[in-house]
Amino acid sequence: MIDINEKLFWKVFKNKVLINQIFYFIHNVEWIDYENHIQIHANNRIKFKYIHSLQFMVKNNQWEILKMKINSKSEFIDINRESIELLFTTLANLNIVLEKHNENEQIKEREKENEESKEVEEKVELESELESKEEEEEEEEEEEEEEEEEEEEEEEEEEEEEEEEVDYDILELENENLQIISLTKDEIKIKISNIKEILSLFLLKRKEEFEICDLTEIAIQCNCLDGLRVLISEPHSIEIYPPSFKFAILNCGAPIVEEIIKSKSFSKLITDDSIKQESLKYSLSNFKDRNGMTNLILDNPILISDSILEFINNSTISYPQPKRLFTLQNDNLQTKSNNKNNKNNKNKNKNDNNNNNNNNNNNNNNNNNNNNNNNNNNNNNNNNNNNSYELVPLESLVKYNDNTINRLMKLNLTNTKKKYSPTIINHKLKIKSSIQETLTYLKLYLKYCKGSNYQENGIPSSLQTLLNEKTMDDVEKLKILQKFIITNLKPSTRYYRSFVLKYKETIPSMHNDNYFVFTSNGIDSGDFNDRESKFLNLFRCISMIVESSEELLHQSMYIINQPNSTVEWNSSILDMIVGYDTLKFSTISQIDWILNCNLDIVYSLISNARYIQFNTLETVERALDPINGLVSIKKLNIRGQTSIISFNQIGDSLLRKAIRNGDIDILKFILSKNNQNFTFKDNEMPLEIPSTIEKIKKLIDYFNEINHIGFTSRLFFRFYEAVSNKINKINNNNNNNNNNNNNNNNNNNNNNNNNNNNNNNNNNNNSNNNKKSEFFKSIKIRATIKLLEETLNYFVQRCHFEIVQLLIECICSPSFQQKDVSFQIDLKGTICQEKNLNIYFGESYNISDINIEDLVFHIESLLQVHESLFKKNNSRFDRSKTHAVQMILNFYFQVLIQTKDATIKLVKEVYNLILNKYCQMIHTSHHAFFYLNLRSRKFTKYILTRLNLKEDFIFGNYNIEQPETPGSFPLRSSLDTRVFTFDYILGSTKGSGENDGLFKNSFDDILKELMERLSHSHAERISLSSTFSSVSDKINFMNYMDQDLEFCLDIKRIDQFFGKLDFINGLIDRGIERGSVTPSEAFLQGYTSSSPSNTLLPTSTMFNDRELPKLQKEIDSTIKNGLHFSENRLYYSYILPDIVKEKIFRVMDIEDIIKLIQYYYYVKATQDSIYSRAIKNNRFDIASFMLSNFKISFKFPILPITTKNYYPELEFQFLINNFPELIANPNRFEINKTLSNNELFPTMILRKVVEFFGESKNEKEYFKFVEALTPEIKEQTLENAIISLREIRYNEPIEHSYQSYCFIDREEVIRDLFKQNENQILLKTIFDRVQKKYLNEFNQLIEKGDQYYTERLDNFFLNAFKIGKIKLCNLILNHYNYNNNNIIIIKFKLLLDFIKDIDDIDIYSIKYFFNHPIIKDNKEILEELKKQLLNHSTFKYHFN
After folding, report:
1. Are 711 and 703 spatial neighbours (Cβ–Cβ below 8 Å)?
2. CB–CB of 234/201 below 8 Å?
3. Closest CA to 447 of 310, 283, 322
């Protein structure tokens, strides 16, 4: 027995009226509640049958739809080179992000395995901070001492930055593909699998359509390894051509070339001599993977030509022993001589380097476009280098990694005869470099910068022996190597200073203090004992850091050499020096030694230090002891006698360390020594908080104990904000560890992984908020009134709910009962272009990160406080606090209505809750805007697209409460807060529930009110003026109307669209009556000729059950029917902008189009415009309706293609299937166009002549005609005007324009002239002469016959062939050349003149049709193509 529901279903299903209504509802109702107003547009919910673009499907991740369309033979897919590039680029980007995911996982695993103690972490952080400061100071000093060297280094740094950009060129799409970056690892793998499957499907089922370009070339250019593998593997085995292989070597990663080497194409590729000749050169110019690519080429000698291999194999030079061995001893005179020589050669070398750099930059810029440029540049380099064979200049060689440099050095590809500047290597040489890296740079230096001959590795035997010593560790070897480099090669002051700081040891030969020097055998002279030698080393270390004078060093040496000197050596003094501007005291003995040494050079070290650190509080106290501390040592300077140490040097790092470690004793000490203040030198440096909750609580307890004395408002805010962030971080780390354990347990349940992840994320958020809330409930904040007054607003604005709650509790505590308080709480007044972003303290933060449950909880908590204060309200103190809490609640409510997770139900509940607790609700334009946003994002879209509003956004923010300025239309004046209230926008009807959707005011009512205030009122004000006196008025009027029409289509409200047209027509009617609208208004013109009214077919059924539209009011007769012409009358009609015309075909059905035609029934070319735009938007239902009811003037196809969604293949198929008679004879297209002009021109000539002379661009012609001295000049001027007008196609639609270029007064003069009989006769005479000429041409066109069209170089078959529309070419050939049903015999073919230059033709058209009869059976065409293809860069390999 059939169920009653099933019976009803079939009754409804079989009822055409009901089923159509159901589908209409489904298609037109928005089922998605868009989060962002930008997502609302007419292109939403596009139907499956209208999706053809491969690019669209790839961009929108419509992989399943794409697979279905590939598998369906009847589905058309628009494939072009850009869409194929996007497919490969997307696959490449996905793999890059997947690699990043894998790297991050590995990093996290290593971090987890190598967790260190907190003390070690702090030490590492401190050292890194000191090193960064040290490097900054070193760079500053280097700029002062070695300006020329720095300039060269900066040039090389710029080169490296350029190369880094090349390394990450694919990731430049990050901004466009942010959704890829946000994907999980599993989601990325699924997408990769989908794209690879789609590539295979294309190659298996639609290869002819997909292979419209060199697919392997695109995959290589996109660096898409996975895509390349699919293409060249079985069963596809697509060939790779030499230009692509060269490009891969020059621009891609080594894995791409490795894959090519494994492919079947490789055996053909290596037969190309140009590859072997250039492979090594290209690999050396590869900036993406220079090391991997160079080693790959060298590992495969088959890729290198025999001539280059022979050069490499025979170029090893047997170096004789050097004349002078480098030792650890150096002569000052010789050093000065060497320095002088180096300086003399610097300018010459610098010029050489600049030339080479310029060549390299040219190569970088052009390598993707023209590989020949590289060859030319390299040849130029060779010529510059005395015709020697140099593949790798030293500037390039140093950029490789250590292993590759050594390998290339052995091949002698760098010119050893050229004298290179040592700066090239000095820039790369760093004290942190490993022993192998340092050794490599030393080899480079000795081989290419010194100009002497050495053994193969270039290392002196004395040094090599030490380096080969097995009993010596690498640290000691590295020190010896660095000392050798400093002593003999003089790299830079920076390098030597770094050596001194690292080892606390100086090299005597680097100092000009005339004291003894060390040799490999010990002390050379001076007879200094061990104590004196250590002091000299200390003084030299200090002089390297503080740049003390030589006199100060001599003075200090004199003191310690005195017989009665009591200064004993203390080895820990050197340990104090931990950075260029940082000292660290570890023991009190260091302070005691300094107090007793009486050495000015040591005092200068301390007084010049920016940062001084102490291991213990005891050492700090001793240092600052006014009697027995460092502050007791006075030094004379420009300000008189001052201490060598001050609290400013100590306080900053001491305070940061105390807060980081939660060290209360140090904090107490700082307060006692710094006038009860906590201060920082650098307020913007991040503040570090203790790593455990216990220490954080201990720290806060202490600050409460002292009532936060010593805190500035800035420090107070930064400290508690940092505490809040730290608590979040601690909780996140704990949750991440739990998640990792859960994920490991769930690895076997792949289907549930995504759900588990989502649940885990939600649980984590809730857990974090709970733990954070628990923490803040467990603490209190006590501070001064001043601090609370100055910082409360900061915390409120940044939505630190828990801290605000604590501050409010502090304010309401008994200690503040009888104290004046004044709190300034700012309300929100800005709207941000970026969704839900806010700006505070100059920093953007996302309000959507706020947990809405947390926000509501704190609103409820504050309401309890407010209620308590409100009930007291005994004094002005209570009223002040009540007002502060009330303002905070209002601010939080503004945050709530702005948060993306807020619902209307929740907002209503909170709103009513606040009102019920006696809290006054503030209502501003900001509130009104976000109430409307909550009600519907469509309101937001309408508001934010209003006139001038976008220009008012400053740095992404619009202040809705800004003062109004004359002449502008700010949003505040339009969003009248007396009208757009909470109740008006979100209020429910009586008896309805809070969330049943029954609002007091409907969507349409609110929209009507918005349009009235934001658009209609301004448009009416403009139209009520006596005339559109300025261009800006016309622009404003059309802007208002156009934006309203476009908005109606975006929200798919066709009824509102036509209502808006009625409103516009009403304004125009009133304007015509008042005379404020004139014939020259460009947005109102319309002719009855060639309109739907006179092109309606006799067979049309359009008006069988409809009344014909009434003719609108005539606004211009121009010239009354004269002696010789019957003037075409001009009627008004508002011209729709192009964007509106396009969107009409996204949302309207045939019934709507019929209604639109009725509005424009008497407007020229309306039917042609509707048909052409229907075709361009694939609306063949509308196109079919237009062809069935109107005489359409059209040209097929529209080539070249300028419209994004137009597919001539679909149009041609549509015409073949439905209206084959229209395209039976293509030659008729031109004939019909000429015939149409012949018919229309006489009816429009008078008006067009008036317009011609009235336009500003024809001003010279106007005066020549009006002021003509002879009848001949007047006649010739008029004839020239008519000829130029005759070339216009008069059945084209009128274009939308924001400006009128006609002069009304000039038109009046012309009208008066042509009222005269003599001028009408003249016009008639010239017209007949011109018309006769065009009629003769028309007759000649007809006489040429139907086949004439196929002989034209611009016929649609050749145009399609030219741009690679292979499918369209096949359709044309099948319909005309091979269709026996055609009455008119027309055959298309290739023309010899057409293929004279194949560079203008898509080469894949030739490839596809090469064995087709149109080429194969035409020997002349075949021979011409073969001749040209012999020289084609790619397809000479395919066709030869």
Report:
1. yes
2. no
3. 322
Distance CA 1072, CA 1114 (A): 10
- Are residues 630 and 606 in contact, defined by beta-carbon separation less than 8 angstroms? yes
State the amino acid at position 52 in one-letter form: H
Can you give the pTM of this predicted structure?
0.77
Helices in 710-846 by DSSP H: which ranges? 713-745, 753-777, 785-797, 801-811
Identify the H or E element spanning 870: helix 852-872
CA distances from 712 to 265, 681, 796 (A): 72, 13, 18
Of 1064, 1078, 912, 1097, nearest to 987 by C-alpha is: 912
Beta carbons of 516 and 528 less than 8 angstroms apart:
yes
Residue 202's nearest CA partner among 223, 178, 218, 188 is 218
Which tokens is 920 given?
């006054």
The answer to whether the CB of 1299 falls within 8 A of the CB of 1034 is yes
CB 1291 within 8 A of CB 1241: no
The H-assigned helical ranges of 61-117 are 63-71, 81-113
As to burial, measured by CB atoms within 10 angstroms (0-12 exposed, 13-18 middle, 19+ buried), residue 1378 is exposed
Q: Which residues in the chain land under pLDDT 50?
A: 117-120, 122-124, 126, 129-130, 132-134, 136-176, 316-388, 451-457, 517-526, 638, 747-759, 839-844, 955, 966-967, 1082, 1117-1123, 1126, 1296-1301
Residue 1110 carries which DSSP code? P
Category of 1149 on φ-ψ map: left (φ > 0), alpha (ψ -120 to 50) or beta: beta
Q: Sign of dihedral through CA atoms 807, 808, 812, 813?
A: negative
DSSP states along 980-1007: S-HHHHHPBPTT--TTSS-BSS-HHHHH
Tokens of 1221: 């008679």
**Which tokens belong to 776?**
């803040």
Query: What is the rounded CA–CA span in Å between residue 1197 and residue 1211?
Result: 8
Q: What type of residue sits at position 301?
A: P
Of 969, 976, 1121, the residue nearest 1032 (C-alpha): 969
| C-beta neighbour count of 888 within 10 angstroms | 26
DSSP string, 478-508: HHHHHHHHHHHH---HHHHHHHHHHHS---G
pLDDT of residue 325: 30
- Looking at residue 842, what is its pLDDT? 44
Q: What tokens appear for 429 in the block?
A: 């040489």
For 45, the token pair is 């919910």
Relative to beta strand 640-643, strand 634-637 is antiparallel
Which two structure tokens, joined as six digits, stand for 1056?
């509102």
* Alpha carbon separation from 1028 to 1068, 1069, 1253, 1296 (Å, rounded): 12, 15, 22, 17
Dist. CA 289–CA 1256, nearest whole Å = 60
- Strand, helix or coil at 438? helix
Closest CA to 1178 of 1139, 1201, 1151, 1208: 1208
CB 160 within 8 A of CB 399: yes
CB of 1081 within 8 A of CB of 1071?
A: no
Helices and strands per DSSP (H, E), number in the chain: 68, 12
Give the model confidence (pLDDT) of 126-146 as tens digits.
Answer: 455 445 444 544 444 444 444
Across the strands, what pairs with 1190? 1096
Strand duo 611-614 + 582-585: pairing: parallel
> What's the number of CA atoms in the CB half-sphere (13 Å) around residue 259?
24
Q: What is the pLDDT of residue 873?
A: 66
3-state secondary structure of 1410: coil
Tokens standing for residue 1216: 């073949």
* Cβ contact 1280:1232 at 8 Å: no
Phi (first) and psi of residue 1432, to 5 degrees:
-70, 140
Nearest-angstrom CA–CA distance, 22 and 16: 10
Nearest Cα to Cα of residue 941 among 29, 950, 1055: 950
